[in-house]
């Protein structure tokens, strides 16, 4: 391809000289240059430049990427992310998140661990059928992946779930570090190699042409053993080799060298994609992931908000925005197919559905990520925003500038509310807009000033809620220092029938929860309860989060350890009345748990069972 050169019209000196090496880049004349010097006012010339932000997503081939600079994003929010305590999602919520991930532009969605429970299998199957056959922006169809341990039962379950997708993938794994092989697997190296080789071959034999293999705890494994086992699974038909730092043990230079050495020493590695999966135990997951990409990995495994086992995973938003912000300068021109303007909506959806709140100082999506309080910083921002912001908030879908000039109040209509929510990164319409509108009007009658944070809280409480089994209609409490607190609660069931109950308690929330229990008649244990004021002032909306566990013991199988774990269910609520906010959260958690129970009953699986 010919080089692109622009010379100064007076001196003739070259101003820009660039030889595009990448057929996926597009060139475009963006502006005409006119010298400010009056002597040269009649001189002008066009400057063609490379717009690195306009890049086509390469056509998908399991073991090959045509563009050497393209990095696939593999999102495991629905699998590893859901292993976070209290992060259990309903099937509807998982489907909603999967649709949002596809809209975001994720290349591969790891939808779950089908062998862990019948509910997870059905959820992955539903995602494969609906999201795995949908066509999204620019014709993108995501790969739908299911996790499986190295055994035939797991692989059969994974294939049963993902085979309905247009692009199905099975991801199988076995541990390769000495500590795991000796104490967990109790297997020799030769046995582990044979198990990995035979199970990858089995996954290919049942019809899956896209098979990913992970040597669990690769960060603490013997490199020479890694080269050997990876070479064997390549021969067996693996198309992607994922290198997990399972316990977050490595540092960036070390992990980057590991990826480089695997690429240099593994037989047949040129015929597969190298991937990374970095845990955050030492707070280095994003740095390690980027180091792996620079060393040659072309698939990066991440989660929304960095949720996951223990300290979590590499954060999708951090990895993607680092590549977007610094990819051209210091990261070798690497880029992704992510539409970053959907990041904020994805973050909020996962936050609400998982019940895991994002800390205010979280990079990219935290409440303080684009806030400036220091006087020196504010002065710089007023003079030029680039003084203290390296990323524009609009890049992730956040727009707090109120460009429309809309100020919402009790006289505002649906269209104004919809426009304002779009500014905040939320695209809503239909029933969701109607439900949010009536909640908004209710608050606007009581509160003079409706802030952006108020709207986000209402959005979370009204739209990001599980499919209701029970719906809160009314709650009335009496409390104080003169006697026991009492509460009366009215709930509506799925058939529209009203149920009323009264109870006493040590406080208004305790009394209200006991009244709910008398109606629902499902014994649960309240594990966590927390409340925060969304904004300043005595009229602030209160946001509540609860975590419950059913006494009947909903269980599933842990993907890595194989242990049976008890499922927990979170719920969130928001209201200007702290008791109503608390009851909303509690009913939301109960709805999640009861929806999960209904799914088990539908598939004729007894409570507490798990498919091993």
UniProtKB/TrEMBL annotation:
It is an enzyme of class 2 (transferase). Residues 71-344 form the Pyruvate carboxyltransferase domain. Gene3D superfamilies: 1.10.238.260, 3.30.160.270, Aldolase class I (3.20.20.70). It comes from the Eukaryota. Keywords: Amino-acid biosynthesis, Branched-chain amino acid biosynthesis, Leucine biosynthesis, Metal-binding, Transferase. Pathway: Amino-acid biosynthesis; L-leucine biosynthesis; L-leucine from 3-methyl-2-oxobutanoate: step 1/4. SUPFAM superfamilies: 2-isopropylmalate synthase LeuA, allosteric (dimerisation) domain, Aldolase. This is 2-isopropylmalate synthase. Pfam families: HCS_D2, HMGL-like, LeuA_dimer. Belongs to the alpha-IPM synthase/homocitrate synthase family. LeuA type 1 subfamily. NCBIfam families: leuA_bact (TIGR00973), PRK00915.1-3 (NF002086). Its EC number is 2.3.3.13. It catalyses: 3-methyl-2-oxobutanoate + acetyl-CoA + H2O = (2S)-2-isopropylmalate + CoA + H(+). InterPro entries: 2-IPM_HCS-like (IPR050073), 2-isopropylmalate_synth_dimer (IPR013709), AIPM/Hcit_synth_CS (IPR002034), Aldolase_TIM (IPR013785), LeuA/HCS_post-cat (IPR054691), LeuA_allosteric_dom_sf (IPR036230), LeuA_bact_synth (IPR005671), PYR_CT (IPR000891).
